[in-house]
Amino acid sequence: MPEASKMKKPDVKLVLLGDMNVGKTSLLHRYTDRKFKDTVSTVGGAFFLKQWGPYNISIWDTAGREQFHGLGSMYCRGASAVILTYDVTNWQSLAELEERFLSLTDTASHDCIFAIVGNKVDLTDPKAQLSQDSSGVSEDQTEHEEERTEPQVLSSCPTPPASPASLSGITVHKQVAHEDAMALYGRILRYKGLEEKSSLPAERMCFETSAKTGYNVDALFETLFDLVLPSILRKRNENQQCPTIDLEECRGASSKRARFCC
Amino acid sequence: MERDGHQEGEGQGVIIRNPPLEINPPADTLATSLSLLGNHMFPDQVARDDRATADTQEPGELPPSEVPAQEQHLDAEPVSNQENQLETEETDNAECQNNESTETANGGTKDDAADNDQNDSGEFVVTMLAKAKLEEQGIGVKGRSSPLLEAGTQESPALMSHRDEDVTADSWRQHRKHIFVLSEAGKPIYSRYGSEEALSSTMGVMMALVSFVQSGDNIIRSVYSEKHTVVFLQKGPLVLVCVSSSRQSEEQLRGELLYVYYQIISMLTQASISRIFEHKKNYDLRRLLAGSEKILDGLLNLVDSDPSFLLAAIHCLPLASSLRDSLSQILQKAITTNLVFSILIAKNQLLTIVQEKTVIEDTRLEPADVHLLLNLIGASSAFQAGEIWTPICLPLFNPDCYFYAYISYLDPPECTVCLLLLSTDKEAFYAVADCKRKIEEAMCAQNSLSLIAKAQSYSVSQVGVSDLRHFMYKPFDVPDNYRQLTQFTSPEMEAPYSSEEEKMRLLDLYRYMHSRIHSSSRPLKLIYHVAERETLLAWVTSKFELYTCFSPLVTKACAITAITKLLRWIKKEEDRLFIRYPPKYSTTPNPSKSSRGGKSDQQDSTDNGFLSLL
């Protein structure tokens, strides 16, 4: 049922959520345009289509501002993956994920996967500053990083939350440790009523990225794309089984709207 | 007047040197309270900095007192009124035209400075407003932190340039036009320059003025000084204040404040703002407007530089009528349920607009609503990537409900041609996005994009009237126009008005002419105005409103002949210059969901998350 409102073209839907100024648009820009540029505060939501092999992946980059909070559930409807984004230098941005954004994902697909992403890690972590801007190098890096996704996670774990800034004269204090994000991941699973054992492990679904340097950004999106593939295949099968799906979909969508109005 | 309590001790430092000429109690006590507040607000020297402000004057702008001498009125009424009298006529009780000055005895070190001729209330208020945050110096001047966030490190510097301004600096005070928005509780909501935190006590003073006058069953409208006009506008729970040295009329400035108000409404709706403040009087509205400052900044820049706002009319891009018609037909064909407006924009000017039939029978689309849409698009470069789906309220259409706007550029990466589709259905994104694909395909088939790329505004030389440098023509008689969008046409500003300063100077002259034509106390029909470097003629009839600018050597007779020729040229070209017959379509799906029903459908404001905040 949650897939019902989705239209023909995109095979799967991925949503970026998180407080304003955490860097959602920048992450997406970095991934799609290989660039980091100044963005302005997103209005409403921005829809992108990404070709991933033979599949069309739609990505909703949502506004983090409270002004648009009410739309969140609409953007999330039927989503197969939700990227909850926070700013590692801002504790409140992690807290907001739980307080404001988690409930929006109620309309997501039942098998929706969650990723928790701490952005702006270049401000706190010398390792993330090393990444290069040029796309040639970051292509290289992509593979490199994918291989070491887990080691990277592990290596940042031991960093005590209190004193990461002393590493190389970095001025910004890291307010959110990787463990905090992983703890939140656990709470999200519980909120969703999912078994921790049968779900994807926190180590795999908690990322620390830098849209500015490109650090870990490709790894984030590509990991998610790979993980939502089963969802695409399942949906394709459903569509083949039922050629009259369009009518069903329409009715499903409108009855759903009625439900949300009340 | 919550501040009155703790400043009695300082009261004796204030001397009201020139008591108000008209003795009316409210103004009198207001003056006292102004002084009291002022003294409370700036413990340091006051008047010295004023010198610097006093010397700044708009380049080339005539002092008002010289204007009547150079001006000849062609209309029948005899002209005896001096500019100054006009202004006085407009003064009402609540306006404090009283001349006063303050002397700060505080510290006793700046007595000399205080002797300066700081003898007008407006300047005084401005000074006071500027000085008010001295006591708060260091608070929030550097960066504004979102009220939601503890750490203020998240903002990107490029976004915050104006916000970072030091509000105690002279440069801050010399801005041509300040705009402030605050809540009735005196909470800062928006300031055009400088961060609201740093200005919170300044805004407190403004609110004190408003509520003091209110307590006397009166409404503060404006404060005049030699150099500044301070205009107040109260709209629901919001108070908007403009401090301007631009010499625009009070009516014009109030109109601009109204645009600011409408822009805020377009993002939040009037209903939700009232509801929020009903629940919580001291709510910090910046929570909801955070991130939208850029849109308000952009609006204010547009208001200053684009005559559309002054004329309350739409400027559409001149286009061969056959091309405009074919574009309209493309839009007309690509429709879906609940689609209400399809708008095509190039270079920030309207190409065509197609409207839903029944909706437009109910209410017409106001130019101001289109201006707000254009500003939203212009101010958000985020629109250049991807397809946007966002709620937006058209405040003049219906201030309490949302439309859902689909915004997408048709020519990436140049991003000059923008498609805007408005639906009443929140869930319609995919259906509306399909309309875009259809439009894209059709435009591709007809090669429309490259034809649009060739379209451009015209040069005044095409009119073929010598001595005519520029004009603005707003017709009232375009067929079908009275029920539709009010439009105007105007050529590019060319030499000698190619620099930004000169453009602004010409616009200021137009604004001056406009204020005379539309003066509430003594409206004029025709003005022939010999300015220093050009001659202007403004003329309003039942069929049009026209502003023309000639070279300075033109004679009155020449100007009249030129205007006749100009009007003939416009008549000949009007199919190209205006959207003559805005096309319509019908998308109301079933009787149960007519446009009316559709509109009220939108009032599911609980769905917009505002209540959850309270």
Automatic annotation (TrEMBL), chain A:
Entry-linked SMART domains: RAB, RAS, RHO
Cellular location(s): Cytoplasmic vesicle membrane; Cytoplasmic vesicle, Phagosome membrane; Golgi apparatus
Cellular component terms per the entry's GO annotation: Golgi apparatus; phagocytic vesicle membrane
GO molecular function: G protein activity; GTP binding; metal ion binding
Membrane-related topology note: Lipid-anchor
Reaction it catalyzes: GTP + H2O = GDP + phosphate + H(+)
Chain intervals for the UniProt region annotation (Disordered): 127-162
One example of a Gene Ontology biological process annotation: protein transport
UniProt biased composition (Polar residues): 129-138
Entry EC number(s): 3.6.5.2
Any matching Pfam family: Ras
Principal subcellular localisation of the protein: membrane
Essential cofactor(s): Mg(2+)
Enzyme class: hydrolase
Family (UniProt): Belongs to the small GTPase superfamily. Rab family.
NCBIfam families given in the database record: small_GTP
Name this polypeptide is given: Ras-related protein Rab-20
Lineage: Eukaryota, Metazoa, Chordata, Craniata, Vertebrata
From TrEMBL, chain B:
Biological processes annotated in GO: protein targeting to vacuole; vesicle-mediated transport
A Gene Ontology term for the protein's cellular component: Mon1-Ccz1 complex
Record's compositionally biased regions (Polar residues): 94-107, 585-597, 603-614
Sequence ranges assigned to domain FUZ/MON1/HPS1 second Longin in this UniProt record: 338-439
Sequence ranges assigned to domain FUZ/MON1/HPS1 third Longin in this UniProt record: 468-574
All residue ranges annotated as the FUZ/MON1/HPS1 first Longin domain in the record: 177-299
UniProt-listed InterPro entries: FUZ/MON1/HPS1_longin_1, FUZ/MON1/HPS1_longin_2, FUZ/MON1/HPS1_longin_3, Mon1
Region Disordered: start-end pairs: 1-28, 41-119, 582-614
Role this protein plays: Plays an important role in membrane trafficking through the secretory apparatus.
Family label: Belongs to the MON1/SAND family.
Protein name, as recorded: Vacuolar fusion protein MON1 homolog
The species this protein was found in: Solea senegalensis
